[in-house]
Amino acid sequence: MIHYSKTLKQFIVVVAAVQLFSCMEERKAKEDDSNVISKFNSTWNIHERCQMNDDGTITYKAVEWGGLVGNFLDKNLPVDLSAYESITFEFAEPTTVPTQIVVADRFKTWGKEGIQKLTCYFDGQDVTAVDKILLQTGDTCTLTIKKAFLMPNDVTWVSTNIWEGECDFGDWENGFVVKADKFENAEEGDQLEFIFKSDTSNPEITYWLFKTIYDDTSTTLEGNENELNNWGCAYVGPDATVYRIRLTANDVANLKEKGLFVNGFHVIVSKANLVSRSY
Predict the structure, then answer these.
(1) pLDDT for 219-260, tens place per residue?
(2) What is the pLDDT of residues 150-185, one digit of tens each?
(3) Which of 53, 196, 251, 276 could connect to 247 by a Cys-Cys bridge, CB 3.0–4.6 Å?
């Protein structure tokens, strides 16, 4: 049996305490980096107001498509958010109007009314130089934001092509089917990815839409339910090139049985991929 001196025991205890403190500080630093609610301290429209409350929430008095602005500049330079997969806002009460998150004026996620959380995934988008992020509302309202945080991107994803071609949706004129057997290895939490471009050739067209349903039904997927408008469609921006849907267990079961039908409004799709976690 090995006997340690009292001094050596004290030394071991001190080293262990230092290591524990260091780990705690590192974890706290990561948590501090992820919590970005304090960055949202100004508004896009002079008729709007925002206030940081004592409990750490923000009261945002919004006007239609104004914006609560998060300043992400560091020493007047845009920051690289590629180490993160998404930004999420949590609301104290269900929203009463549609909301959207806009990242660096390049891509956005739309949320219907009645939600208490909205997440914008960065998947496939360039977030190496982000200067600002906006939270916008579709009408005048008051929002109380409980949290605004970045989610670290610590998962490796593998992409499998399940459809390829060139489908120009036009004005709901065209669509395509992904057969059920393409989803035989799909799992809950996998991502359905579309590579596309928005058709901006007509200046009178100011919005672009995706609609994804289980084939031969009128039922939309659940994974992007919070983003859908009253007609079951998801908005994409004019400069966006990737759109992803995180599949629920019910999505996976239905896709394995029925397959997928995709169409929309003035979007041209070139690929559909199933993006899965690498274990």
Answers:
(1) 999 999 988 988 999 998 888 888 999 999 999 999 999 999
(2) 999 887 888 999 999 999 999 999 999 999 999 999
(3) 251
Query: Coil, strand, or helix at residue 116?
Result: coil
Q: How many residues does the chain have?
A: 279
Using the 8-state DSSP alphabet, how is residue 44 labeled?
S
Q: DSSP letters along 235-269, please?
A: EE-SS--EEEEEPPHHHHHHHHHH-EEEEEESEEE
- Note whether 143 and 90 are within 8 A (CB): no
Distance, in Å, from the CA atom of 125 to the CA atom of 28, rounded to the nearest integer, reads 28
Nearest residue to 180 (alpha-carbon basis) of 260, 251, 246: 260
Structure pTM?
A: 0.71
Strands (DSSP E) contained in the chain are: 40-43, 49-52, 58-62, 68-71, 84-91, 99-103, 107-111, 117-121, 132-137, 141-152, 157-168, 171-178, 191-198, 208-214, 234-236, 242-246, 260-265, 267-277
Structure tokens at 248: 């629920």
